[in-house]
Amino acid sequence: MTVFDELKRRGLLAQLTDEEEIKELINAGKATFYIGFDPTADSLHVGHFMALCLMKRLQMAGNKPIVLIGGGTAMIGDPSGKTDMRKMMTKETIAHNVECFKKQMSRFIDFSEDKAIVVNNGDWLLDLNYVEVLRDIGPHFTVNRMLAAECYKQRMEKGLSFLEFNYMIMQSYDFYKLFKDYGCNMQFGGDDQWSNMLGGTELIRRKLGKDAYAMTITLLLNSEGKKMGKTEKGAVWLDAEKTSPYEFYQYWRNVADADVIKCLKLLTFVPVEQIEEMEKTMEGAQFNKAKELLAFELTKMIHGEEEAKKADETAKAVFGGKGSSDDMPSTTISVSELIDGKLNILDLMMKASLIPSKSEGRRLVVQGGVSVDDVKVTDPNALIEINGSVVIKKGKKVFHKVIAE
Questions:
Q1: Which residue among 47, 80, 269, 328 has its CA within the 20 to 30 Å range from the CA of 166?
Q2: How many Å apart are CA 328 and CA 211, to the nearest integer?
Q3: Around 137, how many Cα atoms within 13 Å sit in the side-chain half-sphere?
Q4: Beta strands across the sheet bearing 370-372
Q5: Mind giving me the DSSP string for 73-138?
Q6: Per residue of the chain (405 residues), what is the pLDDT tens digit?
Q7: Distance (Å, whole) CA 3 – CA 345
Q8: What is the dihedral sign for C-alpha 271, 268, 12, 183?
Q9: CB contact set of 245 (below 8 Å; sequence gap of 6+)
Q10: Are strands 64-69 and 32-37 parallel, antiparallel or unpaired?
Q11: N- to C-terminal Cα distance for the chain?
Q12: Rounded to a whole number, what is the largest CA-CA distance in the chain?
């Protein structure tokens, strides 16, 4: 099975400018392709997972990835999929985030012996002359076509700033620059980037008279059509300091039954034939086995096999009724915060970031969704004694240790 056939079989492909040309290039290992990442935080998150996995698959087939980190485009902010304008970041913040991205990406991509490169579009975008860009690039874009792009439509109702309106031109210029300087003949990205990517292929054709190609991959959505990778605490990060290996494991262990096979196909390197066989017999306990496989494989990919094994063992210890584990997510508070060694259950859950508000916590407690050390707590005014540590259970699947010292 060719790499292109596998991408198709796994359901990764969305839109392509020229399927036959793209198929031929990537199957022959002759694609030099780029995927862009805007450094809007100091860590990659689950939303970046699809692109990272695609890069790894294509590199394994002999193709050369270019990781484009948007040190320049991040100064503007991509309006795609956003209802409000992004916060403006300083150059210092962007530079710090760029370094964090590079470090995390090295777990996926082999950068040795020029097998892949990292470039920062701030190196060329930040030095561009505005008037020269207007004269050189501006004539190749029509406002009518740009306004028709899907990435701008939802912003038009609230007001699309001229700042963001330039994002498509900047991303198109990136592809043009990479084509000229690095022989980059393809751009890949999420399906919400299609309009921006077409802008790049068109600019290359108009300026250089040559063909370049674009392909989008399926967005990581759950069965309800919502983007995956969010929890009550926020994004699921790839940085262990932001999302612990256990929390990362538990996120994937708890995906809906309807999503587990799709996630195995899109995100793991488990042979697609094996996944398809699992799919045929998927019922009851088989769903749990599939989720354990998904959680283990992805945790291993991000945090290493040792951390994946620890997370797996912790989950089995907790859910198997054998008590807590040192690897369980935990929060440490000061003994001085306690009153006679006790703390209100809602305050305790807030400190552990288990609830977004006390009103939400009150609802959970009253409905019987909270236990402390295996004892159900139904009174939102209850005072919890903390003699060293306690384990809070929220719902059926969330466990958290609070340590007082």
A1: 47
A2: 52
A3: 23
A4: 330-333, 398-404, 389-394, 370-372, 375-376
A5: GGGT---TT-SSPPPP--HHHHHHHHHHHHHHHTTTS--GGGSSEEEETHHHHTT--HHHHHHHTG
A6: 899 999 999 999 999 999 999 999 999 999 999 999 888 888 988 888 888 989 999 999 999 999 998 888 777 654 444 444 445 677 788 888 888 888 888 888 898 888 999 898 888 988 888 888 888 887 877 777 777 666 666 666 666 666 667 778 888 899 999 999 999 999 998 888 888 899 899 999 999 999 999 999 988 888 888 888 876 667 889 998 888 898 899 899 888 889 999 999 999 999 999 999 998 887 777 888 899 999 999 999 999 999 999 888 888 777 655 445 566 778 888 888 888 888 899 988 888 888 888 888 898 888 888 888 777 888 889 888 887 788 888 887 788 888 888
A7: 53
A8: negative
A9: 299, 302, 303, 307, 308, 310, 311, 327
A10: parallel
A11: 57
A12: 77
The helix/strand/coil state of 340 is: coil
Q: φ, ψ for residue 327 (rounded to 5)?
A: -90, 0
Contact 300, 317 (CB under 8 A): no
pTM attached to this predicted model: 0.74
Residues, the chain, total? Answer: 405
Q: Which residue, 35, 27, 25, 21, is CA-closest to 3?
A: 27
Q: Please check whether residue 379 is in contact with residue 365, taking contact to mean a CB–CB distance below 8 angstroms.
A: yes
Buried b (16+ CB within 10 A) or exposed e, 148-163: ebebbeebeeeebeee
Strands 213-217 and 186-190: parallel
Report the 3 state secondary structure along 134-171: HHHCHHHCCHHHHHCCHHHHHHHHHCCCHHHHCHHHHH
